[in-house]
Write a structure and sequence with these properties.
alpha+beta; 3-stranded antiparallel sheet; 24% strand; 2 domains; Immunoglobulin-like; 317 residues; 7 helices
Length: 317
């Protein structure tokens, strides 16, 4: 067995993978619970950057020798402290790009966005493991948390008193900023009222924002699953109307109401309703789902729906 094929314990990648999968359990925790925030923090602000650094720099720094990897990057002067700093930095840099990817894949930031995050982390784990196996075993970077803490403590202790104070304050500021930002995006602000309105498939057992019908014949029925989450702070009665619309040049030229129903949802609860109907119109049509709160006073003059979602469907001749 060659050096590059020597088995090296990748306990860090195993730990990251297990943690990412286990984090899916937060969906069972109460919304807004501080435990949800604490669990999500590493997934957002450290782990993605840590894995990316491993992919780019799988080798550890050895002495003063310069080693260039296949990507044309050198791990010189990239010690554990620098890796930790880059892990936070890369995670924060790529967080907006990840949000955009989720938006495109899922049609919006929905309750299942964590699934996409965990999947991405697992894929990065595999890539990092592959990159690690492509270099000699003695040059592979394997983290040593206790050694890193001792080295960091030694480096800080060797600095002048003023620099020590500034280093500690900077670390505290970073932790505070990351924690505040994560808390803001992980749970609604106090007093915020809103209603989740998501159209998917699969029913209550396997609800997903994928697998929508794309092409049907005029005599076929289509079924959609409608998720309504009440975060209005009180029990709410909702009216839902479903229309099939023909759209030309951005204007609705024909519309047919194919279904309508009313549902009551208690505060901080959600319901998933399966609705089956016949599309009626032919050609490429827009299925418009509109949600209103019963007795809700609209702000707009044309009384636009409180929430609306649409999908496209092709009804063959």
């Amino acid at each position: 067995m060659s050096d590059s094929q020597t088995v090296t314990p990748s306990y860090d990648l195993i730990l990251v993978g297990v943690y990412a999968i286990a984090s899916l359990g937060i969906q069972a925790l109460p919304e807004g619970a501080i435990s949800r925030v604490l669990i999500v923090l590493p997934l957002l602000f450290f782990i993605p950057g840590y894995l990316l650094v491993l992919v780019l720099f799988p080798a550890k720094h050895i002495g003063s020798t310069t080693h260039w990897n296949r990507l044309g990057l050198s791990s010189d002067h990239l010690g554990p402290t620098e890796r930790v700093a880059l892990s936070f930095g890369f995670s924060m840099i790529f967080l907006p790009f990840f949000a955009i990817i989720i938006w495109e894949m899922a049609g919006g930031i929905d309750p299942f966005a964590l699934n996409y995050l965990v999947t991405s982390i697992l894929i990065l784990c595999l890539i990092a493991w592959f990159r690690r196996t492509q270099i000699p075993a003695e040059r592979r970077y394997i983290p040593n948390p206790l050694g890193t803490l001792k080295r960091l403590n030694t480096q800080v202790a060797s600095k002048p008193r003023v620099e020590q104070v500034f280093t500690v304050l900077l670390a505290l500021a970073i932790v505070l900023a990351v924690g505040t930002f994560a808390l803001a995006i992980a749970s609604p602000q106090d007093g915020e009222s809103y209603t989740e309105f998501i159209v998917g498939t699969g029913g209550e057992e396997e609800f997903t924002v994928a697998g929508y019908p794309t092409t049907v014949s005029p005599s076929d029925d289509v079924t959609y699953s409608i998720l309504i989450g009440n975060h209005e702070g009180t029990t709410v009665e909702y009216d839902i109307d479903i229309e099939v619309q023909r759209v030309e040049d951005g204007e609705v030229v024909e519309r047919v109401s194919v279904d309508a129903f009313t549902v009551e949802v208690e505060a901080d609860e959600q319901t998933i309703e399966d609705r089956t109907f016949e599309p009626t119109l032919q050609g490429e049509v827009r299925i418009m789902f509109q949600l209103n709160i019963v007795d809700h006073e609209f702000d707009s003059a044309d009384q636009a729906p409180y929430r609306s979602v649409h999908v496209w469907l092709t009804v063959t001749d």
